[in-house]
Design a protein that fits this description.
The protein has two domains: about 150 residues, Rossmann fold, CATH 3.40.50.1860; about 110 residues, Rossmann fold, CATH 3.40.50. The chain has about 270 residues and is an alpha/beta fold. A six-stranded parallel sheet has the order 4-3-1-2-9-10, sandwiched between helices. The protein binds D-glutamic acid. D-glutamic acid (DGL) binds next to helix 3.
Length: about 270
Amino acid sequence: MNTQLPIGVFDSGVGGLTVVKEIMNQLPDETIIYFGDTARVPYGNKSQETIVKYSRQIAQFLLKERVKAIVIACNTASAFALETLQKECPVPVLGVVKPGARAAAEVSANGRIGVIGTEGTVRSGLYGTYIREIRPEVSVYGKACPLFVPLVEEGLCEDEVTVLMAKRYLQPLLAESVDTIVLGCTHYPLLRGVVAQVAGPEVTLVNPAFETAKDLRELLTKKGLLARKDRTPEHRFYVSDGAEQFRAFANSILPCEMIETDAVNVKVFA
Ligand code: DGL
């Protein structure tokens, strides 16, 4: 396979850009094609059947763009659709849940781990399943934090309302004496400051976006698919609605300005 082909990255909307940011930092020679399903966000409260259907449609779109690998940069879609896409796609497919789970299993000293995410991710219990595959004795406590996503999208990452909600959401996990919390939703790395402040210095925060970029590097290296350093990557960004808002959010969190790579509305579903 041509190593200069792009990597397809998708999410329910803007949140997956936290994963894109880590990939750009750790794999600066890779070209990224991003798809954000902004017309159908959120995924966090939808059924597995619906998420699998959406993920399949997006994977087909990315495959038509001739990607060499696909990263599901959405925790909910990773929890519900990873296995299906791995079975059906002719290229390697990576999700964010397994890398995050592995890191949490490695860092927890007391074997008590909290996972915060959407309703869907927490309901799936998949972080716990993967963590216990590595360390069967570990206790995993999940907590859905549905208001975190809109708070981030409203630009309230450091607002007192967010601190208040973080206290409420994290309280049951802290009451279980967790020493590790997985930021199990694409938006939560942007709330790292508030979560750290509420959880305190004894709690280690795991960012699955960072761990996924690390695993992607390993996967591409193993398969001989790492891009050569012979050109500046031209990333492309697609969304299913609202390209303008997407662009503004992307420019606020990505390391490079999307000057030449404007976001484009596309239809991946009928
Ligand atoms: N991207 C989703 C996730 O990581 C959060 C937003 C949504 O609910 O679609 O689970």
